[in-house]
Amino acid sequence: MSYQVPEPKIFTCTQSAELSEKIAKSFGTGLGKVIFSRYSDGEFQPSFEESVRGTRVFIIGSTNPTSENLMELLLMLDAAKRASARHITAVMPYFGWARQDRKDKPRVPIAAKLVAKMLEAAGATRIITMDLHADQIQGFFEKPVDHLFASTLFLPYLESLNLPNLTIASPDMGGSKRAYAYSKALNCDVVICYKQRAGSNIISHMELIGDVKGKNVVLADDMVDTAGTLTKAADLMMERGAASVRAITTHALLSGDAYEKIENSHLSELIVTDSIPLKKESKKIKVISCAELFADVMHRVHHNTSISSKFLM
């Protein structure tokens, strides 16, 4: 008697519900049913309301703070494992806690490594994520990691703008590799900002390496949190004679007064993905959905076909 592999099931954590609906629709299915029971003290319990025994399960959830988002994903993974799912893939459009990828001073944790181990302990047999803050985080896992790049989404948009004298910029030294990759793909110049920090999210000094006079500059980064770096870089470039400055950032954390900084800055446009839902809309912020990208990769993973075409950078 032949055994037919059952169709995969897709479930969502609450923080990624809107994106998950788009992914499931693009995949060609609906979201699986899951309910959350909540206690008065804040504790919660997810429950799959349909069988997942022997199936491939995709659980979608970004782990941006608060830590409840990470805990929700961990509980969903554990529930799938205990319900005898055959394969359990954690689909994390945004991998939170990734900025803590090393010990940058004594007596601090390596949170990214800890999160990786917790995901595996909870039951994840595969990870699909996008634009990790540091590529080497993949090495924290013992399970396969599919690390996607938002460049597959941003490059077509940038090309459609037909900007003359285009220049790609990195807002810091750490993002220079990303900026060079974009500049190579777009066949344009690249400049780099050098910054010094006085503390977390506090920039004490910034300098520009390269010429932006008369150029249409596009800043490329993996995330925007307080927007301090991007807006300061944009202001500096306009002071140095840039014709325009816009930014592409994969993950829109946008905490604190980030929206106000963006509105009052020289940025003409901030292009982001919907890996994290926006807290509010802004006329300066354009969202490009990553739903089709994740749906395509999930389909390829299920059917054991190559996804190398999604790794443009």
From TrEMBL:
A Pfam family reported for this protein in Swiss-Prot or TrEMBL: Pribosyltran_N
InterPro entries, A to Z: PRib_PP_synth_CS (IPR000842), Pribosyltran_N (IPR029099), PRTase-like (IPR029057), PRTase_dom (IPR000836), Rib-P_diPkinase (IPR005946)
EC number: 2.7.6.1
Annotated ranges, domain Ribose-phosphate pyrophosphokinase N-terminal: 9-123
Alphabetized UniProt keyword annotations: ATP-binding, Kinase, Magnesium, Metal-binding, Nucleotide biosynthesis, Nucleotide-binding, Transferase
GO molecular function terms listed in the Swiss-Prot or TrEMBL record: ribose phosphate diphosphokinase activity
SMART domains per the UniProt record, alphabetical: Pribosyltran_N
Class in the EC hierarchy, top level: transferase
Signal peptide range: none
Record protein name field: ribose-phosphate diphosphokinase
Organism: Arenibacter antarcticus
